[in-house]
């Protein structure tokens, strides 16, 4: 059963952000949602999603707020919160979560997210950190921030797959938006990822990579279901294409 969250529950700035984004999904997409029952109605939870286009955040936000029925708090790079522009004001006012990628302490980079989870909130993260560079737009090798966040907070990780937004904006390949006719977009959540083998362990690189790969494997399985084809047996490594200045993705 689809849950509902009223705009009054969201607060002024969050509601404003939704009112800005909602027309996009109403006018330019035909939405299909599945698996909302896997997201708990209350308590701290991490929603980890694949990233296929710069056009998919409104699609994912629509699913979280109007499908899951929870005011998700998205992890966003900290630079989006600076300045006096509308975007920065909405980010701050809606209490979205800045990620401080330039900090030397990877745990400190996620401190606000851990606090939100401990307060029982729904936190949304793109583990890949950027739009997938995989040639087929499959989930690529992710940063380990999602594992660090899950293991520091103890919160469950619900994998979320999305497909379709790449037809609106094909990142890295084509410029511009292709809004019409409205595009079918699908978002599906799955059961929480089994991270029992990693919980209670020191946060070594091996543990963080193993937990991250477990999350991404579940996301890839859901993506395969949406696409109706098997996921690749090898995961694309973005370091093959990212410049030296972009390779800080590994520390977030």
Structural class: alpha/beta
- Spans where pLDDT lies below 50 across 5 or more residues: 247-252
Helix and strand run: HHEEHEHEHEHEEH
* Strand order in space, largest sheet: 1-7-6-2-5-3-4
Topology:
Layout: H1 7-10, H2 12-28, E1 29-34, E2 45-49, H3 56-68, E3 73-77, H4 86-93, E4 97-99, H5 111-118, E5 122-125, H6 145-153, E6 157-163, E7 183-189, H7 205-227
Parallel strand pairs: 1-7, 2-5, 2-6, 3-4, 3-5
Antiparallel strand pairs: 6-7
Q: Please, could you describe this protein's structure?
A:
Helix 2 (12-28) packs across helix 4. The radius of gyration is 17 Å and the shape is globular. A seven-stranded mixed sheet has the order 1-7-6-2-5-3-4, with helices on both faces. It is α/β, with parallel strands linked by helices and 252 residues long. The protein contains seven helices and seven strands, in the order H-H-E-E-H-E-H-E-H-E-H-E-E-H. Strand 3 (73-77), helix 4 (86-93) and strand 4 (97-99) form a beta-alpha-beta unit. The chain has a single domain (7-251), classed as Glycerol-3-phosphate (1)-acyltransferase (3-Layer(aba) Sandwich). The protein has helices spanning 7-10, 12-28, 56-68, 86-93, 111-118, 145-153, 205-227; strands at residues 29-34, 45-49, 73-77, 97-99, 122-125, 157-163, 183-189. 33% of the residues lie in helices and 15% in strands.
Labels describing this entry:
252 residues, alpha/beta, Glycerol-3-phosphate (1)-acyltransferase, seven-stranded mixed sheet, 33% helix, disordered C terminus
């Amino acid at each position: 059963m689809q849950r509902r969250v009223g705009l009054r529950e969201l607060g002024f700035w969050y509601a404003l952000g939704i009112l800005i984004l909602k027309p996009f999904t109403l006018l330019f997409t035909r939405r299909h949602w599945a698996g909302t029952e896997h997201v708990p109605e209350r308590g701290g939870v991490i929603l980890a999603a694949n990233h296929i286009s710069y056009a998919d955040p409104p699609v994912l936000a629509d699913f979280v707020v109007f499908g899951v029925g929870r005011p998700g708090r998205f992890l966003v790079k900290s630079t989006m919160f600076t300045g006096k522009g509308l975007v920065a004001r909405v980010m701050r006012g809606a209490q979205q979560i800045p990620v401080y990628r330039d900090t030397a302490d990877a745990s400190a980079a996620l401190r606000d997210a851990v606090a939100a989870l401990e307060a029982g909130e729904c936190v949304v993260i793109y583990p890949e950190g950027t739009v997938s560079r995989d040639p087929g737009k499959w989930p690529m090798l992710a940063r380990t921030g999602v594992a660090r966040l899950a293991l520091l907070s103890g919160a469950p990780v619900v994998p979320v797959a999305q497909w379709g937004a790449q037809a609106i904006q094909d990142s890295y390949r084509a410029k511009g938006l292709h809004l019409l006719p409205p595009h079918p977009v699908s978002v599906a959540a799955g059961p929480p990822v089994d991270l029992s083998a990693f919980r209670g362990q020191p946060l070594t690189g091996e543990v963080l990579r193993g937990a991250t790969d477990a999350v991404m494997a579940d996301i890839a399985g859901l993506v395969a279901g949406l696409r109706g084809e098997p996921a690749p047996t090898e995961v694309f490594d973005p370091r093959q294409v990212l410049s030296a200045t972009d390779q800080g993705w590994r520390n977030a």
